[in-house]
Amino acid sequence: MKLKLLSILMAVAVALAFTSCDSKKSRSYNDDSDSDKSKSEQIDEVDKEEAEEAIHPTGDIEKDAEALIQRSISIYKQINSAEDFKNIQKGYADMQKEFQEFYKNKGKGQDFIKVYTNMMRDPKYAKDLKESEEKIQKLINEAIDANKK
């Protein structure tokens, strides 16, 4: 079971590494008060709704790359445990594959990857992607440590 979990975590890490070439739209919430918890609850609800929405290629490379990045970040924000990895793994991989195959079939696979990769480096998305990568890496390390025991 631990080996299976480790495999799942590694698959998500590889997907994250691919996605790290893209970036998500950074949300800037200027909330200086600690007492305004309803805002953070609303943000969490929005993130959860975004993570559950299905996205599909539209034919507009830039829009699709941005949608995929934003969706990936929404999904990453929902991952807090190995169980979360397990629950999203297939859907996440299928979503990325759908976009890649769509543009590959149109003869624009490399164009999509280039736009997607450049967008991931955009500061607007890079911070969220880096935080997600660090969180997932921490979960991977925890799974590896648990596997050693």
Tell me about this structure:
By secondary structure, the chain is mainly alpha-helical. 77% of the residues lie in helices and 0% in strands. It has six helices and no strands. It is elongated and about 50 Å long.
Shape: elongated
Percent of residues in beta strands? Answer: under 5%
- Please summarize the sheet with the most strands: none
**End-to-end Cα distance:** 13 Å
Number of strands: 0
Number of helices: 6
H-E order: HHHHHH
Helix content: over 70%
- Using only C-alpha atoms, the radius of gyration works out to 16 Å
Average pLDDT score: 74
> Helix/strand/pairing class, anyone?
mainly alpha
> What are the segments in which pLDDT stays under 50 over at least 5 consecutive residues?
1-7, 9-51
Annotation keywords:
elongated; about 150 residues; disordered N terminus
Q: How are the SSEs placed, and which strands pair?
A:
Elements: H1 2-19, H2 37-52, H3 61-78, H4 82-105, H5 109-121, H6 123-148
Helix pairs in contact: 1-4, 1-6, 2-3, 3-4, 3-5, 3-6, 4-5
Can you give me a brief rundown of this structure?
This protein has six helices and no strands. With 149 residues, it is mainly alpha-helical. The two termini are 13 Å apart.
